[in-house]
Prior knowledge:
- This protein has about 140 residues and is mainly beta.
- It contains one helix and ten strands, in the order αββββββββββ.
- Strand 8 and strand 9 form a beta hairpin.
Amino acid sequence: MKRMLLALALTALCGGAMAADAPGLPVTKAPAGAEVYIISPRDGAVVGPDVTVVFGLKGMGVAPAGMKKEGTGHHHLLVDVKDLPAAGQPIPKDDHHLHFGNGQTEATLKLAPGKHTLQLELADENHIPFDPAVVSKPITITVK
């Protein structure tokens, strides 16, 4: 138990970089039919620099990071990410991998002018993607 708590603390402090070496972080199976999607903005939307992204979820519930409750996870918004985070590893925490570990279902972002891609990925209480991955279709928006 102490190793698990230490791994969780290191994940929070290091954005997941050290948790990949920590034992005891199993991959959680996703419920059949689970689906995550972006409600707004719509694919192809032209938006201002402050854009509110609303998250949608079917077949699962939302729970804060660190809370183990069957059939739940929390959102991660991938901004301008070409490849999904590695399976079985905690999702990185940086300017392109935004964590919503308090159970948030929307966020307002400040984005630079130009085209951006947005995609959601749901992860378990340890920030590890589900198996199979619960990811949205990527959308493209243009910030004016």
